[in-house]
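Figure 2 data, in text form.
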Amino acid sequence: MKTLVVIDMQNDFIDGSLGTKEAVMIVEKVKKEIECFRKNGDNVVFTRDTHTDHYLSSSEGKSLPVEHCIKGTEGWEISEKLDVGDSPVFDKPTFGSVRLAEYLSSKNPDEIEIVGLCTDICVISNALMLKAYLPETPITVKSELCAGVTPESHTRALESMKMCQIQIK
């Protein structure tokens, strides 16, 4: 069975405090991909960047002093345009999710596809973590269903993942 991993498709990354026009442009495409996976009976899981009210005093907050994805806020929520349904959602306090990697390792999927935000931070972090936990499982990142902080950093992240034997489509 295939698994679609939807990374951080949250309001703050789409059109909120860290939103970009590129992120806005992928929402409908990601929605269609989720629907396609479900129609085929495949698994869909989500991650959600999750910070506290004390974000600005954290190590990440000192490097990126923009409050975002504060638990319980509208910016933290996954876009209402995407149907989460009863899919697992992994809240993560940092870029990559160990819990996601452990969960998928226990499910032993035949193939993993990754979409979402931001290509150059959380997508690449989770793709590499999944590759480490599931080295023989084919992992694909759909480039047109991801957006980076900038178009240039998006492209660089895709190239880095390709070098680590993650398929880029």
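Caption note: The mean pLDDT is 96.
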